[in-house]
LCCL domain-containing protein
Amino acid sequence: MSLFTASSALFFFANFVGIFWHVGIASDPPGHSSIAGLVSNILGKFLPAMFCAYVMYDKMGGRRLLRGLTAQVEKTVLWLGACWVGALTNYTLDFIPISRLTGHDLQQQPGAKAALAIIVIVLFVIVVKQIWFFRQEGRLLKYLKLYALFVGGIVICLLLPGLNLRIHHYILALLLLPGTSMQTRPSLLYQGLLVGLFINGIARWGFDPLLQTGASLQGDAQHGSPLPVIRAPEINLGEALWTANFTWATPPAPRFDGISVLVNDVERFRTYFDDGEGSETSFLWERKPELRHNEYFRFAYMEGTQTWDYTKAGKWNTEGEWTEMKAGPSKVRARELEGSEVIKHKR
């Protein structure tokens, strides 16, 4: 369609709607337990996303870049191609070892600091080129004032107590889009990429807040907490039933008052150490011999209702053999399966 339409509005909004639903339903859908639930989730994001799309088109450079543009091939390859690259960021940009721009995460992720340095250098070069183009058009002062306002707002956010600034990639797209409001080939590429990043951010994650508490910002990052010491399980391979009985060492500090167990990344067991005679001191897992698949076990200390870092996975394979978990924490967090139950949940 992009090759055969001269309407900038039709080009922008048709592609925005199509790519938004593709990301939300197919390429990077949010967590869901049913198709109806997924459609409801995406519908809830779609209307506010369309309002943002109108603002991006009418007020943030979309109309100025695309209106009257007759370079159909360049528009298709550069703008639309880059938009797909940004929208499919879970595939196209997944190799970049950065998930959150926080000091804690940058320390945890190998290669994150080098990747961030490269991104900053590339952005600096792009910004310098765009400043030159704005100067040539005589619009530089207007946009310098706009970005000074953005920087001032970010500084205020950084100074607010108890809250952390989190520039999600949909927010980054909104911040940078005004800098693409000129008809140049680089601007076609940059604007398409930014619109794609916005689509992916909203369709997958929704409108996450710009300011977040430390707990909400943690996400799936590791806490750096002590890990349970798990003894080798007692395995019984009966003809009708296989069992594996897990026990653990005493926790290193009194504040750790319970233990949680994930089986195949779903929480199946939790108990507290101070429940007296009713307290569980082991975890028994059963399975039928004919179930020919590996099972993976992770363990974490609890502090009240807070679950800390899980161990890496230990494997109980199809032959009934146990493989010890490697040293260090896992990034996984417990997930829910429809109909799944936690075996023990005391207190």
Observations:
- The first helix runs from residue 8 to 27.
